[in-house]
Amino acid sequence: MNFQRIVVVGAGAWGTALANCAARAGRHVTLWARDAAMVAELTATRENPRLPNVRLDERVAATGAIADVAQADAVLLAVPAQDSRTAATALAPHVKAGVPIIACAKGIERGTHRLMTEIIGETIPGALPAILSGPSFATDVARGLPTAVTLACADEVIASALARALGSPMFRPYHTFDVRGVEIGGAAKNVLAIAAGIVQGRKLGASATAALVTRGFAELARFGRALGARRDTLTGLSGLGDLILTCSSPQSRNFSLGIALGEARAAEGKLAEGAFTARALVELATEKGVEMPIATAVAAVIDETLTVDQAIEGLLTRPFRAEI
Q1: Is the pTM of the predicted complex or chain greater than 0.90?
Q2: Nearest residue to 143 via CA among 174, 168, 165
Q3: Known catalytic residue at 288
């Protein structure tokens, strides 16, 4: 379980950052891109336009051949959450049995309400699903700035081995067997970050932001416990830690989308996973009998069934209750 050969599937900002990270950890790294022009650019210039001013490590080889996945000891699936099923289906014929497939997206599939490791399990039956999540921005990771995340696999021995294979002094994966808890934290915090951005965009003040993040975490924790997550995971890096980061920095696409919504202007064209996950999160919470008023308000704003002002008013006029 040395996991010397790592293939990163997805040459977006996050995939490129993880490729650099794995190379620094001493692994043999291949970065797969769907677009042949991207492969050519990465090979020729060692720069990815989706991650400006960051050079691709010279030890990373770019490829457009999905069959190269067959050489992998472990695969990092770094595509957007809603594209994960398509990408995993394409990988399936080429992945060796027992190879860990590590989901690196944070979301819930629309329509099916499947989490990322569930998608991997359904589409690549012989693979070993795992998840990497936590408070991390692609630029920080790519540049080698200190970052700590959580890596989860149902087999904790393999989770530990994967953490050692990808870890370095500047990138510290903590391992756990609580796959569900890690996935829930990553998916829910993106939706809550949109709410925090709306508070920022509407200039409702620091007190409102603190209240929103705290009550948002209460929603995340209720949802997580209903799906069997461990409390320690929810209060750890992939839960509370990621929520704090994502609700406090414009580097977060979800937070930035919220700011744009709060300021009643069009958001930039960058993907915000929370916008796609919001409705799926609320539907899954409803199935489990979990009340998530903040997430529900965000989903309504994204779906344009409520205005921002109506959503805020609805939250502020809820009945008073005990803090739980």
Answers
A1: yes
A2: 168
A3: no
